[in-house]
Amino acid sequence: MRVLGIETSCDDTSAAVVEDGRLRSNVVSSQTEVHRPFRGVVPELASRAHLANLIPVIRRALKEAGPGRVDAVAYTRGPGLMGPLLVGKVAGQTLARLYGVPAVGVNHLEGHVLAAELEHRLRWPLAALVVSGGHTDLVLAKAPGRYRVLGRTLDDAAGEAYDKVARLFGLGYPGGPEIDRLASEGDPRAVAFPRPTTPGRWDFSFSGLKTAVLYHLRDNPGPVEGRRLADLCASFQEAVVETLVDRALAAARKFKVRDVVLGGGVAANSRLRASMTERGRALGLAVRLPSRVLCTDNAAMVAHVGWRMLKAGRVPRTGKADPGLALRSWS
Ligand code: KG4
Ligand code: ZN
Prior knowledge:
Blueprint: E1 2-7, E2 12-19, E3 22-30, H1 32-35, H2 43-65, E4 72-78, H3 82-99, E5 103-107, H4 108-114, E6 126-131, E7 136-143, E8 146-152, H5 158-168, H6 175-183, H7 207-219, H8 226-254, E9 259-263, H9 270-282, E10 286-288, H10 292-295, H11 300-311
Parallel strand pairs: 1-4, 4-5, 6-9, 9-10
Antiparallel strand pairs: 1-2, 2-3, 6-7, 7-8
Helix pairs in contact: 2-3, 4-11, 5-6, 5-7, 5-8, 6-8, 8-9
The structure holds 5'-O-[(R)-(carboxyoxy)(hydroxy)phosphoryl]adenosine and zinc ion.
5'-O-[(R)-(carboxyoxy)(hydroxy)phosphoryl]adenosine binds near residues 163 and 296.
């Protein structure tokens, strides 16, 4: 079964073709340049850019996939920004109508959980950590479509913390990739930032860490550049990564899973990838990392979830766009 996927929930316009769990094409057109002057995603500009980009992106994805009939169209129905979601939904439903095939509204977060399956054979149940600009969710996934969210962030998402702290350091937008790059030159033990905890719960909290960075800069004035900047990036990153890895691996052990998967933009982070893999291996756990393009927002994961739902005969009753959609089991 060949599924065309469409992803427009935030600031990446993407279309992909996935055939029975195998990736045929995945085209991503990033709007970073549109939003950079505003240091964040401007919803109205995002909607307009999706409108302008989506048809060419879909054409390219279909062309790169090679000849073959599309059997279904999957689009992201939430969570995300309402305007951008509507662009993808209308395009997906219209194309499905034209092709005479089913349209499937997909949960973006489920896409991040299942993205690893496009490149790895997963052993269920598994623990999934979805870390992006909008989410930090620790999930126990019993099978495709059966999820229990163990914990989530109580304040800032991990990617949001990266982006906000990058701003404090005077770096550009988005800050995550820049901190990642600079941190590789720095000493992670240079500054002892707090490891935020939420005792007795699986939740996360990153706003205290962000404040700690702010106070550190206030109490230690002077230019943030060169060696000092690299050390600050490495120290901040170490605090985030250690917190994420501690929690994810503790959950994996507690619920006796064998596989841990990562998803979301922050899963592209080199230190998180290395640390989770090494520390997981030491505990006998297999850490399944999607390649970086499948961590950040992409339509391949959306097409893949659509295929999983169709295969199981569990197409959701509603295809409505829902900006606040939570990760839930298939009903
Ligand atoms: O999943 P994603 O592409 O979009 C959302 O659904 O939010 O994630 C974007 C987030 C941004 O906050 C960005 O700074 C962060 O992922 N990010 C990174 C890296 N690449 C992207 N954070 C840390 N290290 C990276 N290499
Ligand atoms: Zn995402």
